[in-house]
Predict the 3D structure of the following.
Amino acid sequence: MITSKQRAYLRGLANGEVAILQVGKGGVTDALLATVSDALEARELIKLHVLENSGEAPKAVLAELCQALGADPVASVGRKIVLYRASSKDPVIVLP
């Protein structure tokens, strides 16, 4: 669990990032979970875009991903969501 100060710091880091993954019509699948997990291990902080045709609300997708992957929700603005999970092997981001 991250604090509000840490969440604000992570939001600032994610501000300049582009969305590296999209959640489409299939919603949250096992393949998407594996891809997001690998991306979190490599980057720790990722931004995703929830497409209009996914049929799911971005906040619901964020909650589902966080629960399934043990990640922390950072932000949900419009159709963009941001997740954070510290790398188990080589942490890159040092939280205040």
